[in-house]
Amino acid sequence: MKLIFLGPPGAGKGTQAERIAERYRIAHISTGDMLRSEIRNATELGAAAKAYLDRGELVPDSVIIDMVKDRIRREDCKNGFLLDGFPRTVVQAEALQGFTDIDFAVNIDVPFDRLVARISGRRMCPDCGAAYHVSTYQASICQKCGATLYQRDDDKEETVANRLNVYTEKTAPLIAYYESKGKLFTVNGDADIDTVTEEIVKGLDA
Ligand code: AP5
Ligand code: MG
Predict the structure, then answer these.
(1) Which of 17, 93, 104, 149 is most buried, judged by most C-beta within 10 A?
(2) Which domains are assigned to the chain?
(3) 115-166 pLDDT, tens digit each
(4) How is the chain split among helix, strand and coil, in percent rounded to 5?
(5) Ligand 1 atom having least distance to the Cα of 12
(6) Are the CB atoms for 105 and 26 separated by under 8 Å?
(7) Is pTM, for the whole model, over 0.85?
C-alpha cells in the first residue's frame, strides 16, 4: 500500500500517519521530520533547509524530490509507505508519479479556524516524532520513547500564518490533482483523533 496524506498544517497528518502506518505495517515518511532531523544533526542539507522552515516557506522541489526518492528505496518501504507532507506542489506530485505509483491520497479536511489552536498547543518528540497537545497531555516527556518534548520553531504565530498561505497557494491544488486521477479520499479531520483514524481505516479497507 502506497499512500499520501494531504492536509493543511495542524490537520493531524503526523498523528494519523503514525497510527495508520503501524496498522498496515508500512513505513511512515514525514518530510518535515526528516528535515528537522537534518537540522538537528547540523548536516549540509539541514543548514540549507533551516531558513525555509523558519519562514514557513517550502524547501526547493529538487531537494525534497531527491530526498524522497532515496528514502522510498530503503528496505522498510518494501511493504509500502505513507508519505506525510509530500508531495506539496504539483511539480513534486508529477516527479513522484515518475518514480512510483500511489494507491490513494487521503485528504484530512479541517477548517482553518481550528488549526492555530492545534498548532500553538503542539509539543513534539525530537526522537520519534510523536505529537502531543497541551490540552490533553501535560507531561514534558514522550510517552513512547522518554525523550524531552519541545515546541517547533515554526509553530510561532507569525510563521503559522505564512504556512497556511503557502498551503493554500501551493499545496491545496493537489486536492483537485488527485481527484482528477480518481485517487482522492477525503476524511473529516475535525473530529476526535480516534474517530478520524476509524474513518481513514474504513475508507482504506473498503
Ligand atoms: P511539516 O512538518 O510537514 O509541517 P506541516 O505540513 O505544516 O504540518 P504539521 O506537521 O504542522 O501538522 P500535522 O498535520 O502533521 O499535524 P499533527 O498531527 O502534528 O513541514 C514543516 C516544514 O518543512 C514546511 O513548512 C516546509 O518548510 C518543510 N517541508 C516539509 N515537507 C516539504 C515538502 N514536501 N516540500 C517542501 N518543503 C517541505 O497535529 C497538530 C496538533 O493537533 C498536535 O498537537 C496534535 O496532538 C493535535 N491533533 C491532531 N489531530 C487532532 C484531532 N483530531 N483533534 C484535536 N487535536 C488534534
Ligand atoms: Mg506533521
Answers:
(1) 17
(2) 2-110+158-205 (3.40.50.300)
(3) 999 999 999 999 888 999 999 999 999 999 999 999 999 998 889 999 999 9
(4) 50, 15, 35
(5) 18
(6) no
(7) yes
